């Protein structure tokens, strides 16, 4: 398991833990997404992301987390949305799109905890994530709903507290293990 000594968890005014993540794509076609093995359950795949540090902007945290967990750098694109998880943990995650331009042979988490990474088609990734990380699967479903002929990859200003970015509340359903997501704004 990944241990981060001296890590300070940051929370917003509503008590949600502030997180950031990236859907990392092989190219601008957004057909293949990079997933990493979970530090808690190495046989399961997740979207790379993690907690924001004090005074860190969501876009900076997303890029840092992807570099630490997946060993990739790239062109940061649009903010897909802000996703809330209200069940077990109160998380509010800013999810960005990143087009990978550099892949390291060895990176921090591969060396320290043996983390692995693998490319999946978007549909395969949704299936892989649905059983144990349904909120992560919802990121990709939201991406599919928002797709257009031009993917809109451009650097965005950092979201503010009164932003107009889409917010999604994800609630895990007990009967199906699925996720219900609704736009808050």
From TrEMBL:
Swiss-Prot/TrEMBL cofactor(s): Mn(2+); Mg(2+)
UniProtKB keywords: Cytoplasm, Hydrolase, Magnesium, Metal-binding, RNA-binding
Residue spans of biased composition, Polar residues class: 154-176
Record flagged with keyword Cell inner membrane: no
Top-level enzyme category: hydrolase
Chain positions covered by the region annotation Disordered: 154-185
EC number(s) on file: 3.6.1.52
Cellular component, GO, one term: nucleus
Pfam families in the cross-refs: NUDIX
GO terms assigned for molecular function: bis(5'-adenosyl)-hexaphosphatase activity; bis(5'-adenosyl)-pentaphosphatase activity; diphosphoinositol-polyphosphate diphosphatase activity; endopolyphosphatase activity; metal ion binding; RNA binding
Record field: catalytic activity: diphospho-myo-inositol polyphosphate + H2O = myo-inositol polyphosphate + phosphate
Cellular localization per UniProt: Cytoplasm
Major subcellular location class: cytoplasm
Family to which this protein belongs: Belongs to the Nudix hydrolase family. DIPP subfamily.
Protein name, as recorded: diphosphoinositol-polyphosphate diphosphatase
Organism: Periophthalmus magnuspinnatus
């Amino acid at each position: 398991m990944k241990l981060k000594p001296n890590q300070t968890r940051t929370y917003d005014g509503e008590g949600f833990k502030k997180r950031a993540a990236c859907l990392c794509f092989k190219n601008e076609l957004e057909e293949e997404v990079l997933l990493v093995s979970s530090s808690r359950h190495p046989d399961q795949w997740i979207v790379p992301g993690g907690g924001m540090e004090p005074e860190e902007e969501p876009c900076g945290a997303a890029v840092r987390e992807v570099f630490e967990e997946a060993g990739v750098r790239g062109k940061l694109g649009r903010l897909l949305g802000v996703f809330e998880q209200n069940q077990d943990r109160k998380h509010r995650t800013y999810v960005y799109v990143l087009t990978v331009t550099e892949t390291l042979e060895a990176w921090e988490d591969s060396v320290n905890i043996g983390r692995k990474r693998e490319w999946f088609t978007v549909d395969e990734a949704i299936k892989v994530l649905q059983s144990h990380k349904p909120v992560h699967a919802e990121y990709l479903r939201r991406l599919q709903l928002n797709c257009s002929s031009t993917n809109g990859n451009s650097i965005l200003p950092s979201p503010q507290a009164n932003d107009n970015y889409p917010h999604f509340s994800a609630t895990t359903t007990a009967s199906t293990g699925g996720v219900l997501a609704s736009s808050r704004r």
